[in-house]
Amino acid sequence: MATEFPLPPVLTYYPSSSSTPPSLITQGAEGRLYKSTHLASSRPCALKYRPPKPYRHPILDARLTKARIQAEAKVLDRCCREGVPVPAVYAMDAAAGWMMLEWIEGQPVRAGINVWLGARPETDEAIDAANDAHQTPLINLMERIGTVVGALHLTGIIHGDLTTSNMMLQPWKTTHTSQQQTNGEEAAAKEAAVQGDVVLIDFGLATTSSSDEDRAVDLYVLERAFASTHPRAEKLFEHVLEAYGKTFKKAPSVLVKLADVRMRGRKRSMLG
Amino acid sequence: MAAPIPKNKRRRIALGCEGSANKLGIGVIAHDAVTGEPTVLSNVRHTFVSPPGTGFLPKDTAAHHRSFFVRVAKQALADAGISISEIDCICYTRGPGMGGPLTSVAIGARTLSLLWGNIPLVGVNHCVGHIEMGRAITGAQNPVVLYVSGGNTQVIAYAEQRYRIFGEALDIAVGNCLDRFARTLEISNDPAPGYNIEQLARRGQTLLDLPYAVKGMDCSFSGILTRADELAAQMKKELSQGKETFTPADLCFTLQETVFAMLVEITERAMAHVGSNQVLIVGGVGCNERLQEMMCAMAAERGGSVYATDERFCIDNGIMIAHAGLLAYETGFQTPLDESTCTQRFRTDEVFVKWRN
Q1: Which residue of A86, B14, B36, B300 could cross-link A79, Cys pair, CB 3.0 to 4.6 Å?
Q2: Which domain holds residue B97?
């Protein structure tokens, strides 16, 4: 897959890429992500490239690509200044459709949660008791997600596409183990999968807003994405909201609005 | 659990009745008792078409379904060449859809059931009907499904016994947006407003500026319709002053390019999210060749493939209800007569998909 596409022009002339050949990491819905280096070969970076979409009318495509790169860079810059954990922007060319970002180590939250859930013996059962003691590491992760989303919203930014694929788990320098060592290697690996700092990525659909409505819709997108990606852990989502509610003054009113959003229109059956 | 198969019975047969919108469709399907292989025996449809500039109202549509039910049912039976005693179950659309038309068809289905000696009834979710029929016809194994019609816009993926909705329209459905714009331009509703917009759009050349409203995996169409209506009004005004900066064809072209780009985009997001490279397009708007073409361009780039059906199965029909109903019936599901209601709101993810694993 990594050799299927021609490299975006920037990676064929960007001087720092000569020391480390760029590699295609993933083809997301929005574009392709390459790993390369910036300025020094010891400084890894992510190059986000939005190729022209062959299905889209060229005028519409150019308009959307430029606007989205610009908006994304702006939002990331603002998050960085406000201390929200996101990758820093190193360089960009909006019209050419690329942006060079800080490289975030680790795996997506989605993968971490799946490792955690997959390792559970009772695979067919939904996690029921929200305060299930065995779930503590996952619950802690959920709380960290809530806190980070809260910090994002406090800066007046709406992510627009919150999913567990759009959050990275940046490994801690030292591992925190809450369980006894007797649990063995498998349990430790399982626990490590849900450890790390949550870093938000992919701000391609981010907007600026401080309204309860927009914040609530942002949470709702995450809630539904979570329920469809991790149906068995659906019940644990309340921990995200709980932690979110403690992050800033207006957060509780966002949660009230979220209840409205859930009930609204065609989103929901009107029965029962 | 499953209904016992008599030794001499090689196939199961279901009759499906659909009428959630302006199409009344009745069809007969057979499943091989051993392999489950579906065979379409008949697929009859009669559409209520309203005059240009108007939409189909629930009351008139219900009256249409009532007056044509017997005719369409007789035709479906005759085409299938089966006797009534061979029918295992009668399937009908439980929802979602327009109340009046749904009720009319549910009454028709109940009547047939009682008339023919208490043949079991099976209430079917309309959206699940589309998905199952699309899978059966195209052979797509586990695709991301884009369900686009006059009443529904959903991006669906199967996970753990449910068709889960990843993205959907936040306000009006994409087909409703197109249908209503056809009314603004007073384009004919025969055979379908969307079809005529598609034909007109082929002649469009100028891409105008319309809002582009994707929110995560959801999208919104009402603002786009409002803007398109404004542009249409501007066009009429200019025309009366003898000017022409853009034509109805340009408007249709722009509208299609914009809303379909949105649909393809959210489908691509869902594919990337679930890691699938198959797309199945179902629903009336799924017949649109421009949408199919755009979807193919997207899928080709991802190394995937698009599965689409033609108007016989894309547009609402009885056969899809029969097929999905029979799948449920084979797992032991039945709808008792006194519970054979219908409902305007019935979400795709409410259905427990017992027949898949």
Answers
A1: A86
A2: 11-131+315-350
Q: Does ipTM exceed 0.90?
A: no
Q: Is residue B217 part of a domain?
A: yes
My answer on whether B125 and B221 are in the same domain is: no
Q: What share of chain A is helix, strand, coil (3-state, %, to 5)?
A: 50, 15, 35
- Provide the pLDDT for residue A119: 57
Q: Which two tokens stand for residue A213?
A: 């409505």
| Contact call for A221 and B268, based on CB within 8 A | no
Structure tokens given for B297: 């361009």
- Determine the Cα–Cα distance for residues B344 and B97; give it in Å rounded to an integer: 5
Asked whether the beta carbons of residue A27 and residue B272 sit closer than 8 angstroms, the reply is yes
Q: Which residue of A32, A167, A266 is the best one to mutate when testing the B interface, meaning the one whose CB has the most B CBs within 10 A?
A: A266
Distance between CA atoms of residues A11 and A31, nearest Å? 15
Contact B170 A265 (CB under 8 A): yes
* Same domain assignment for residues B124 and B144: no
Total count of domains within chain B: 2
Q: How confident is the model at residue A270 (pLDDT cuts 50, 70, 90)?
A: very low
Give A155's contacts (C-beta < 8 A, 6+ positions apart).
Answer: A78, A79, A82, A84
> Residue A152 is which amino acid?
L
- The continuous run of DSSP H or E covering B24 comes out as strand B23-32
* Chain A, window 233-272: residues with a beta carbon less than 8 angstroms from a chain B beta carbon: 265-271
How is residue A191 written in tokens? 């626990």
How far is residue A10's CA from residue B91's CA, in Å, rounded to a whole number? 58
Domain span holding position A119: 107-267
Tell me, yes or no, whether B287 lies in a domain. yes
pLDDT averaged over every residue in chain A: 84
